[in-house]
## 1
Amino acid sequence: MAPLQTSAAQLVGKSPHNATMMLSSGGYLLTTSQMLFSLEILSFIQIPICLLGLISNIINIKVFLAMNAFNDGVTLTFLLLSVSDFCVCCSSLGLVIATIISSEEAKWLISLRGPSATPGKKLYMFSQIDPFFLSTFSIGFLQIFNVTTIVITFYLALTRCLCVVRPLKFRNVVSVKKTLRVVAISFISALLTRVPIMGHTGISMTFDLRINATRPRMWIHPRREIIKDIVWAGFDMPLCIAAQITLPVCIFIMLKGLTSAAKFRTQAMVSNDSCPAAQDAGKEKLNQKDIRVVQQMIFVSILFIVCNTPKLLTHIGTTVEPEFQIGAWQFCASPNMQHDSTRLHTCSMTARVSTHAVRQRASPRIQHVNARSR
């Protein structure tokens, strides 16, 4: 995020390395007061969503561990997806809290502007640390685990799609070692791409003219924006586009496979023949466990596509038109809006997976099928 520049008359510092807050609102769709009000409303709405995601993922982790996740590649993949989503929700909750603190400080500053403002008055400090630093720190971790979640979702959809196309050949393609290897590579890649960005951001004890007090305050190196654009164009954008294109194809293939499996089972129930040809054909069909996993992945993939589209369009709009924004308070508003769809995707997906996982644990018949298929 670019450091916002204002003048000393707007109660901010002049240092080019200090992150400052824009209080002017000319030429934008929303005024500063309207933007602050909108951010607070969105933040208070997102708090229960984040809490729902945290609770759901705790249930996920507990259930998948009870299902001996480290003995089955598919269950382990869902477990790691829940862990990644849990970290996304934690980062999102930190971002929401930092946004609320930033909004309160901005509203306090706005209320002191004008003839009624008292020069040299010690302003109220809502946070001992610059809330902009808390926002940037939370966004960095959110992006790391968000990339990990995207890769795991993509990996699950692709492997399930291959399992539908060739059940006998790819049924055991999701092994424990392969799953751990894929997740480790995705996490390390996301971490390495964020280290240069976060390394060009720091915090130091600085006198903050806005609150007339000294506190740890964030600074941003001028080259940070260039590095961020390179990472987005070379890593984030291709990953999002690849997932957005590939997942619909996987959904189509999986739906076709489920339809074919349903027709086969209907014909098998009608016909009582047990000829060798029918038995050989039955081996090529999906078993009950595969069908449940495919159904779950279809839901997760559709939810990912629906919730990832607004974020992708926002990023593309920002890339094509740098001035693309809604309000003047760019620093806190832009990252918050860009990750709203991520939070909604994560919390909704984890709630659905939790319901499915609890249902699996509560059904002895399904537990027996899972143990037998392994």
Note: Confidence is low (pLDDT under 50) at residues 1-26, 277-284, 326-374.
## 2
Amino acid sequence: MRSQARAWSKFFVKQHDGTREPLTREQLIQALEYSDDPEAQELINSVTRHVVSIRGTRPFWNRKRQDLEAYAYSLGCPGAFITFSPADLHWRSLYQHMPRYGEWLRASEPERMALSRYLLRQNPHIAAFHFYRRYCFFRDIVLRKKFNITDYWDRYEWQGRGSPHNHGLYWMENCPGTDMEDEAARDVFARTWGFHITAINPEPTRTVPQGEGNPLSVDPLSIEMTFLRLSQIVNRCQRHKCNTTYCLRARKRTGDLARDMEGAAADIEAANVASPERECRFDFPRALRELAAIIRKEGRSYYVFEAARNDNLMNHFNPAIVLGWLANIDISPCTSLQGVITYAAKYCSKSEKKTEPYCKLADQVLPHTARRQPLLSFSSRLMNKLIAERDYSAQEISHLLLNIPLQEGTRLVVAVDCRPLAQHARSYRVDEDVNETIGSYRKYLERNDQHEDITYLEYLQSYNLKTWRRLAGQAKKRVLSYFPRYRSMESSPQFNDFCRVKLMMSHPHRSPHELLVVGGLRFDSFAAAYKCCREHHDTHSDDHYGEPDTNELRAEDDEFELEIHEEPVADEDWHELARMLPDRPLEEEDIDILGRRDIDINYDWTPHVGRYTDNGILNGDYWKQRKAGNRRDLDVDHQPLEARDSLIREQRLVYDTVMDHFLTREPSQLLLHVDGGGGTGKSYLINLLSAHLQAAAAGRGTPVWRAAPTGVAGNQISGTTLHSLLHLPINKDFKPLSAVDMAQLQKKLRDNIRL
């Protein structure tokens, strides 16, 4: 992650300095003297925007939150929210991939738990990948078929001792409507979901019989699915246990709001003795109820689903899911878009501890900025600060190293810049230099005549943004993430911009000014033009940007205070070693202090003085100078003519074919494909041919250019790579050769034989 921070810092500086004069340290300090000022905020935000690409950071999750909100606006309210937790101390499917599996099977329950903890600590990568694959198979095989899932958005999170959890929102076919203001609709919603979700404990008074064993670690294929099996699992996994480090919180506000505490359990009362003002943020214990219902929680604007329950502490569950997953799950139907937006703000981009604003982080790193390349130093430090503002568990690190996605979804999200064209963000492509590229909106405005009648909405949702080819028929439409979302109230000063965006998405145009013309009439404002559009056009596709005079959905505040419970962490040996290094804090990567540490100052550098005096090292272009001074020479060592007699029959056939073609000066092209496995003499034949062709050229230089697909193969034949020879881009957009490059390449290849 720090390596990515360095790379993105260099890119940011290249981009910044390519458009204006480089900043000195004094100018940077002056620019950020008041970090709350708009100019300073613009610089800080331009740095943090680049951190979006570093997975797991706060800006990364903020972007994912915006993506989730775009899903909700585009696809409507999802059917259900489901959380999957692991039983990674018990799952047989996990430990069969671990070392010492036979010992794990034979062990008693206490011995097995101790061994599981040890194996989990030693093999976090296996646990991380197993959870990912288990969830993906479960989602695609069980959930998709049981609930007719059409779309989903899910993310991974690490809690407590570092085990992963998956939180997902799922869109389903034929879900009941979410018109919660209609009592009849609420009743249908509750009865429909009541068939699928319950909090009924099959054995509310169950006690574990002696010698019963662990229901989570048995082979699920050898166990019959009975109510006893269901009871064993839900009583082990689904009953909530309150504690101060997990769910007991103090409310942010006090008042006369009463809570329904019917049937409160004794363990909750005991937990609250030491801290009576704390309450469970998940509202346990909950009231018993015979039938599922839709209720409105106190202090909330939206309704929630409550399943039938006979156990105050039982989490919602679906029997099929909990029997298949064999670990704790939570499932709740989504009742409104408001609830989804609140979830996105509360959980999707949440941090493990209270985080500071970006401007405060900038204030902390600014005094430590280096004098040389100050902008690079500042941006690198700020990015590293964002990376290091929380802890990462071993399984999360393994998840990142294995390149497993942190978030997955069925739709591709496209960002839509809704600001006026002159204010649009600039797009860049990175090759040897930073080059500006055309943004999506400019590409749309400059489209070919054959796409004249296509709207910007159609282009973004259903076309390849580079080639303008329509996506395949089975491809899902893209989800559009609008920024900013202007207020749609007619009294708002942003209403004119709101109307401009609505026209921009639905009306084909070549210039933003054309949007002022509707039905052949030109209007003075976008608001007036859009009013005319609404009166006369009723066939526009839904752009999911909202309708006029509708309230904007905003996340509701959490009713509980955020509390941090830090557990003591046993340092690894390398942590202790890191603290012994001079001026080298564990949490910072301080490159700029190199040369000024005590160990550097006290060292006798005399023997090293004058060793590296090359100006190229000081100027940073050492390798460019070396390449310029050592041009590639494709000449090969002399080989006597008799060496051709060492060739076997097939090699000699190739040799004679190439030599005859060259010596007779045959103008037609010779295309010859020779196959052979490793060690069959291909490189020897190529080098011998090169030597004899070089001799036949009689001092005019070698007529041969040797090229291979890879660097290793090219080195074997003393040649180059094909992409280097032909100027083919690697992992970059294809660009036509410039006239100068084309002329040079044609000159280089005009009289050559390519091997």
Note: Residues 254-275, 427-437, 559-580, 582-592 have pLDDT under 50 and may be disordered.
## 3
Amino acid sequence: FEMGFKDILILVTLCMITNSTCCEEQKVVACLRQNMTCLKSLCSCTSNNFNSGIAYSHVTCLEVTEVPKEIPNEVYTITITGNNITTIKSGDFNNMPNLNTLSLNDNKIEVIEPGSFANITGSNLNIHLENNSLSRITSNMFRDISLVAL
């Protein structure tokens, strides 16, 4: 049967691969009719049903201290949760025209540098920042962005 974009994205979102199965270099596993290619700290679910070929990137509980540079620009959803990231740097999420959901929950984020989300070209970006350590929010930090939870 045919699945639409939202159906596939929901299925891919349900594919939560743990450290023991995901983060072995170059390991490929089945992921709900998707291909999961694991490169060091980054996991990407890919699908031939998308023009760009990349639907989702997921980094969880790997104790990374910064946003991985290996995230492809074509992703729709990025989930980076349960890590040790303290700063979101300007440029961490540049040139991602398809990005519509960014989940940064349960990290140790204290600082979001000015302009960190300014160069995301998608117009409907939802950001999740629950359970972090932010102490200051500037008035233009989330301009033109839908902040779902802080």
Note: The chain has one domain: 5-149.
